Batch of 3 targets.
Target 1
Amino acid sequence: GGGAFNVIPDSVIIGGTFRAFSKESFMQLKQRIEEVIIGQATVQRCNATVEFSSKDKPFFPATINDKELHKHFQEVAREVLGASNVKNMLPLMGSEDFSVYQEVIPGYFYFLGMKGELDKKPASVHSP
């Protein structure tokens, strides 16, 4: 339909991304996306095909910190920064390829931030 609201197009291309905390969940989600899209198209008497561009944008496994490195990092960070300055975070749905390294060697991914005394919220990790 382009930019018009009252035009029904012959075809539509929809794109997006999806993420999961494990490869198993990722594969289940991938299967479910295909089932839902094809099922909804069928309900509307339409045809749908689902393509995942895994060649251009491969699956990155979840970045999960090594437990021993986590313990070591916590000890060192508390000693250097003070216990009150070390915060644990809930898992994030970020897109990160650090996990590729972790498939070869144990790894530890963390965020390091700072803020001025007047700032209530620190700047984004991708800010200049």
Target 2
Amino acid sequence: MKLKYYKITLALLVLPFLFISCELLGLDYQDSYDYDYNEGMPSNKIDMSAFEFIQSRTDIFSLLGEAILYAGVENEFKRSGVTYLLPTNTAFNSETSTDLSYFQTHKLTYIDDETGEMVSYAPISMTAYPKEQVKEFLLYHIVQGKYTFTNLPAEPTWFETIAPADTAKVNMYLLKDRNPNIVFNNFDGHYKSSIKPRTSNLYNSDGSYMHVLDSWLDRPTKEQLNMK
């Protein structure tokens, strides 16, 4: 009885901070992020698949959702026992130079009819790229196995994704400092270092973890993996 009282008291203290943190992270407070009185801690459970979650949050995932439909890989976002690394719209279309968004780093070209000159431009949708390129990009952001704060190593480690290429590996580890966080693809030569999630540790109804990123991940080369 006393333990239950302590948990309820803790809930009343923690709940206001949950509202604030979820708003700051861009994920509005929802029932699925509610406080778990039995466990005595905020719940990380999302009562939907990764695909449904993406479709429900078009405010931050509209470009990702469009890419999934374009590449025809909806079922890959309904898997169990995997880890989803979900790029937000910012990862795709940010025009801030330091963000190095996908569209800004993968510009397309066309020939100007009047001048005959080659002109480069940043697309506004993943549908501007070949389907195979988009499919490979999406599958690379799905890691085989369930990984989160409780089981990631403290040292940078390579993990297999469901993408078919032999270099389709993601580097992950748990940075253990005052504010522990997951770090992605922090290896020499990656376009951006120390990528961390904007929201992490979400557990969906298919039994998979989801980490939300404001950056996209680029796969390593054979040289970076020390492969022959």
Target 3
Amino acid sequence: MRPLDLTEKEHSRKVTIYFEGKPYEAYEGEKITVALLANGIYWLTTSTEGRKRGAFTFGPVPMVVNGIKNINARKTKVRDGMRLERQGYGDFQETVEIDEGKPVGRLVVDVAVIGGGPAGIGTVLEVQEHLTVAIIEEKGWLGGDLWLKGLPQEGFGEKKPQEVVNELVGKFNENVRVFKGTIALGVFDKGEYFLVPIVTGQNQLIEIMAKRVVLAVGAVDNILLFENNDYPGVFRRSDALEVINVWGIAPGRKVAVVGAFPEEITAELERWGIDYVVVPNPKRVEGREKVERLIDMNGHSYEVDAVIVADGRRPDINPITQAGGKLKFKRGYYVPVLDSQHRIRDGIYVAGSAVSIKPHYANYLEGRLVGAYILREFGFEAEPCTYEERLKDYEPVAVPVHKLPLDEFNGDDVQICGCDVSLGKVDNVVKSGITDLQIIKRLTHLAMGFCQGRFCLFNGAVVVSQRTGTPMDRLDIPVARPPLKNIRMKVTAEGVEEYAE
């Protein structure tokens, strides 16, 4: 077994890859980043400002693969004999590629569900008997955050989460089209329909025309602010869960857990026998090429080889604002303003963690609830009151907004965004008197990268709020601009791929 393997891998799938000229063991189906982690390799790339980066805090991970630069290792699977080298961000720009050599697909459905977690699955199961549905999921699996868990979850009995997901998805009927590994570029008005352009994992553009749209886009992990929080060996909670429960690989052998919700990961670490320590007040990570120690605000030092950030989640608001939704601040995060039927406007619904942070089963029930509302709109019998009543048993989770020790941190070492947007950069602009987040975006590049602020915009708002004393609910949060992802057209000619922005 490799240094960080938790489980035996299938020997017949074993391949050899070469990193910086040295051979390493890998297995077919693994992503490059996962295979290298299993071999104890954390430092994979370098930011434009020379900061060492791994694969599990900020993305993407540009690498040289078989002599070709700018390959995103987070999305590329290993092959036997593959040769890998480190690469800096340089001129790399992560984009969604559309192959112009492939015809544009077109699909007309009654309902387009964006997001394949418990809420999206619940909506599909509620409407599929009477309506046609397309469910679009960016990951390579359905189930969302539930799929990443290894322990039974409230409401689903004693079954393992992946068994629960497979059982639910196995009930999909012929009225359902599933698109995994597929990115939705936004929601656009098109007469009596909504246009939802998607790009599949095969780089094909498909235009989905839907009478109703459900945004079941889930939530994103909070990025906790401390010095060198982008260092190789720092993991978001969701990435740690993925490497453990999807790939059977440990994030490290001795791990520090930081953030307001350590219980979201510690039970999984205990299940696999991974040593950990909970550190409630991290200040700085140190190491030569990866995490070697964590120092807290009291000066205590912890010798660890990985840090997992478990600081809760907040709704993914970008698809909501792009589709025309308004926001309000409640329970420590921004949430969509909904009418009595969970709509941000006529025809567009929101369900699940995109509405509020709550247990997986509550998200599933909320998906069923939205499906019932849609059925009634189409003239079919439905009983949304049944789901409304059951949802009363679940109180949404409040997420704390941490008081930032702005004058105690070395702000240049605290990363708000993977695009080299530091706390220091944002704080200096705010201290100069500029508090408009739109202007701050232009001056610092905050929320201007590939993700359009899914992970960083909230912390930028926190800095403005705490420096100026302005309540979070009084800030003007920028609207996500369409399309939700940067696009690059790929033209294949005479066996050579050329790209046009």
